[in-house]
Write a structure and sequence with these properties.
Blueprint (H helix, E strand, L loop, with lengths): L1 H4 L4 H12 L2 H14 L4 H19 L7 H7 L1 H10 L2 H6 L2 H14 L3 H11 L11 H20 L7 H42 L1 H8 L5 H16 L5 H8 L1 H16 L3 H13 L7 H18 L15 H8 L20 H18 L10 H24 L3 H11 L7 H13 L3 H14 L5 H14 L2 H14 L9 H15 L3 H21 L4 H13 L3 H14 L4 H13 L3 H14 L4 H13 L3 H19 L14 H6 L2 H7 L3 H19 L8 H20 L3 H14 L4 H13 L3 H14 L4 H13 L3 H14 L4 H13 L3 H14 L17
Helix pairs in contact: 2-3, 3-4, 4-6, 4-8, 6-8, 8-9, 8-10, 9-10, 10-11, 10-15, 11-13, 11-15, 12-13, 15-16, 16-17, 17-19, 17-20, 19-20, 20-21, 21-22, 22-23, 23-24, 24-25, 24-26, 25-26, 26-27, 26-28, 27-28, 28-29, 28-30, 29-30, 30-31, 31-32, 32-33, 32-37, 33-37, 36-40, 37-38, 37-39, 38-39, ...
Length: 855
């Protein structure tokens, strides 16, 4: 047909040009002119009018089910014209095949799938040989394969056998694959034609003016030239304009091809189809489609492909027919990118991230920055695309530990995310995961403003304050905000629980007894109310049990921790608390059994191993404790060595010192002049160490955990009478952070063992100076003063320790001995009685040693 349409007459050339550009109303006008000038072309005229009416109708009415009834009446003239061409005259003119293909399209638009397939049989679509085609013919053929595939997919009649079902499925897949190849080729050729038209229009302006001098055709030709130039140089600005260029049918086929393969269980073939389409040279029309395809392939790789079944692109060598097709020129295949230095992903991670980064770049390019009302629809469409990409990017980067990459992507997204709470919230979460807690809190505060009725961002901010920033009062304020936002009648959130946690932490941190009692009362009330609101929440029961434990009500605490474990058996913090409660009930062997059972479920849990090692020391099994601590070191290497790499050095700054010194606790003691002088003394003594001290690279939390392990190892060595090994452990810990009050305290313990009393006293003084709330250091300092014959100083230190931790029997016992030395036997007896009263409910480790949990 293409050869016959290329006649020498100007009208026929104009008609062909208008057909390629989709100017159907103009085609009808020119066809009427053609019939008038040449009556012998009546058959061709009928075809052109039928085609134009069909395409004109479909541009305004999509071929969807809701339009089927309307299409049957609206396409009657087009159907009649095309039927006239399928007879003998059409066969002689060589346009009957095209007429059958267009009739199949018409029947599809009317919902007549069987009739559509019959027309494809008459057109012998499956037997067509590859040859050079015009733009219009390429599009007709691409749409024909697409329509045939869609008709086969939507057929109501089901195959009668498995063989016929498989045959139909294979034919449907073939149709969609051919439709995508021809469709992409058509769009590539359309781009070339538009570029050539624009170039020729500029180069041949003189000849165009000469043609315009013709009386009847001048105005038409001039209009055509201008219109063609406009189309070729304008990039479609929205999806509707893209559909006008590509057509709804073709766009559906391009997206449907890999989905059909996935439905058929041919996942690898679907992935290869995605890759083939993405590797085709990009055109103006496929830019938005490319975003969809890249995002869909990334989703397929994330959800359906594991590393074991993944095959890298372009690794399979073609064989058989595929090899023959690569050695011969394929006229109906789209042109592909091919460059010597072209990057090819080598594994699952690289391909998924590459696709998502391409999708992100495309989505960001299409975003609309203007907030004007007329751009609202375009802005929402672009934002929807960007949000979908960022959600997938979140899944991929978190899965592979690339949180910093995610955070950088969200930073770029903020420029077009004004008022988009989803992006702000995700950005805040990514900052939390990257360890940038202060920045994350500011972002979450913005998210709170954007969603005035949602308690979730308030709870996230509260958790951040409690867990990472030591801003307990600010966290409590956020928890109260979340509580106010709760909607009555709907399942309660954890707002009430977070309020209770806030009061509980304030009670732990405060040093004034009246304030502590007040906060403990508020915490107990809030946590009991949280349990009443949701008696199936294990975390509410856990924190209520912890509150009773902190108040010394061990029996009630055991009851509630059992409730927590009944609701969630495999909850490590609940098992941790249960073990400590058993030790407070003077059942250390049972506690050790609980911890060992818990470690069967959580073999890498360092907190449980820490309890196990202390229990073994408590039970005089120092050799076994040594083994447990060495295992902790091995686990630390497995878990954290990757996190403390040199690349993360920018995150390891002096803030670790501030956090470790517990600024809340220090500030509460700064009113005491003695405390200030002690801090100055400790800092001056540590100056020589700090002058050569360089912070360890990477995040600081893993290093703090390692310090804790080294100190426990030193304790174990001390228990097996190896003080020099213990000193080596202290030295290892000091290389990480020499100003740690815990290191200073443990060094003092070694000097006590060696009976070097003055050195021990100095170490304990340094520890108390670094952290005035460290009760163990205060107790040890008081005991050392007592040994050195300084009972008044011992009394002061031990009373300070008792004020901070009134439930420690060791402090009261040591204070009793000091008071006896001072001759105050009544006070001594009271202290000893208090120690005896507290001893049965004293755990092997403080209940406050259990880290905060929100899981």
């Amino acid at each position: 047909m293409a050869g016959r349409m290329r006649n020498t007459t100007k009208v026929e050339a104009l008609i062909e040009s208008c057909r390629s550009e989709g100017k159907w109303q103009r085609v009808i006008e020119l066809t009427e002119e053609l019939k008038t000038g040449s009556p012998n072309n009546e058959c061709l005229a009928n075809f052109l009018i039928g085609e134009a009416k069909l395409e004109n109708y479909l541009e305004e009415n999509a071929p969807i089910e809701s339009n089927f009834a309307k299409a049957k009446s609206g396409l009657q003239d087009a159907r009649r014209c095309l039927h006239l061409v399928t007879g003998e005259s059409g066969q002689k003119a060589g346009i009957a095949l095209d007429a059958y293909l267009l009739l199949a399209k018409l029947c599809y638009a009317c919902g007549e799938y069987e009739k559509s397939l019959e027309n494809f049989v008459k057109a012998e679509l499956n037997t067509l040989a590859e040859k050079e085609l015009t733009l219009r013919s390429l599009k007709i053929l691409a749409e024909s394969y697409a329509i045939k595939g869609l008709c086969l997919e939507n057929q109501t009649s089901k195959p009668t056998s498995k063989f016929k079902k498989a045959e139909k499925e294979a034919e449907m897949i073939t149709c969609f694959e051919r439709a995508t190849d021809l469709g992409l080729l058509y769009l590539q050729e359309q781009d070339i034609a538009s570029y050539s038209s624009a170039t020729n229009s500029a180069a041949n302006a003189g000849s165009m003016l000469a043609i315009n001098s013709t009386s009847n055709m001048g105005g038409l030709q001039s209009s055509l030239g201008g219109s063609s130039l406009t189309i070729s140089t304008t990039i479609p600005a929205n999806p509707l304009e893209l559909k006008r260029h590509m057509g709804a049918i073709l766009e559906t086929a391009l997206q449907r091809a890999p989905i059909v393969l996935i439905k058929a269980g041919k996942l690898q073939e679907a992935i290869e189809r995605y890759r083939t389409m993405l590797n085709a040279i990009e055109t103006k029309t496929t830019q938005s489609l490319r975003l969809t395809l890249a995002r869909q392939l990334a989703e397929v790789l994330l959800r359906g492909v594991s590393g074991t079944i993944y095959t890298a692109p372009f690794t399979k060598k073609p064989t058989g027919q595929a090899l023959r097709s690569t050695t011969t020129k394929r006229l109906w295949k789209p042109r592909k990118y091919a460059a010597r230095n072209q990057f090819t992903p080598r594994n699952h991670h690289e391909e998924t991230l590459l696709l998502l980064l391409i999708s992100e770049a495309l989505a960001v390019r299409d975003t609309v920055l203007s907030q004007s009302p007329e751009f609202r629809v375009a802005r929402q469409h672009a934002m929807g695309n960007a949000s979908a990409v960022y959600d997938l990017l979140t899944l991929a980067t978190v899965r592979w530990g690339l949180v910093n990459m995610l955070q950088e992507s969200f930073e770029k997204a903020l420029k077009f995310s004004f008022g988009e709470q989803h992006v702000w919230r995700q950005y805040g979460i990514s900052l939390m995961a990257a360890g940038k807690h202060a920045h994350a809190l500011r972002v979450l505060q913005e998210s709170i403003k954007l969603t005035p009725s949602d308690p979730l961002p308030c709870l996230m901010a509260a958790r951040l304050c409690y867990e990472s920033l030591a801003l307990i009062k600010e966290g409590l304020d956020f928890a109260h905000q979340a509580l106010k936002r709760e909607t009555k009648g709907i399942r309660p959130t954890r707002s009430q629980l977070f309020v209770g946690i806030g009061y509980q932490q304030l009670a732990i941190l405060t040093t004034l007894k009246s304030e502590r009692d007040s906060y403990n009362k508020l915490a107990l009330e809030s946590l009991e109310k949280a349990v009443q609101n949701d008696d199936n929440d294990h975390l509410c029961e856990y924190y209520l049990s912890l509150q009773y434990a902190l108040l010394g009500n061990i029996a009630e605490a055991l009851t509630h921790v059992r409730f927590a474990l009944a609701l969630r058996t495999e909850h490590a913090p609940s098992l941790h608390l249960f073990a400590l409660l058993l030790t407070a009930s003077r059942r250390p062997r049972e506690a050790l059994a609980v911890v060992e059972d818990a470690l069967d479920e959580f073999p890498d849990n360092l907190n449980l191993l820490h309890v196990k090692a202390h229990l073994q020391l408590h039970l005089q099994d120092a050799e076994l404790s040594l083994v447990s601590v060495q295992k902790m070191l091995a686990i630390w290497r497995e878990l954290y060595e990757g996190q403390v790499s040199v690349e993360e050095e920018k995150h390891s700054d002096t803030r670790s010192i501030v956090v470790h010194m517990n600024p809340t606790a220090v500030s509460s003691q700064m009113s005491d002049k003695d405390s200030i002088s002690r801090v100055e003394q400790a800092l001056s003594e540590a100056a020589s160490s700090l002058s050569s001290f360089t912070p360890r690279p990477g995040p600081q939390r893993p290093w703090m955990i390692q310090i804790k392990i080294w100190l426990l190892l030193a304790d174990a060595y001390l228990n097996i009478e190896q003080p020099h090994e213990a000193l080596n452990c202290i030295q290892e810990a000091s290389q990480i952070y020499p100003l740690s009050h815990q290191i200073m305290f443990m060094r003092g313990q070694i000097y006590l063992y060696l009976e070097q009393w003055n050195d021990a006293k100095q170490c304990f003084l340094n520890a108390v100076s670094a952290n005035p709330n460290h009760t163990e250091a205060l107790r040890a300092l008081g005991e050392t003063h007592h040994v050195l014959g300084e009972p008044r100083l011992a009394e002061k230190m031990l009373k300070d320790a008792a004020r901070l931790d009134p439930n420690c029997p060791k402090i009261w016992f040591s204070l009793g001995k000091v008071m006896e030395t001072l001759g105050d036997y009544t006070a001594s007896a009271d202290c000893m009685a208090t120690a005896l009263q507290l001893e049965p409910t004293c755990p092997v480790l403080p209940f406050t040693s259990i880290p905060l949990t929100f899981d």
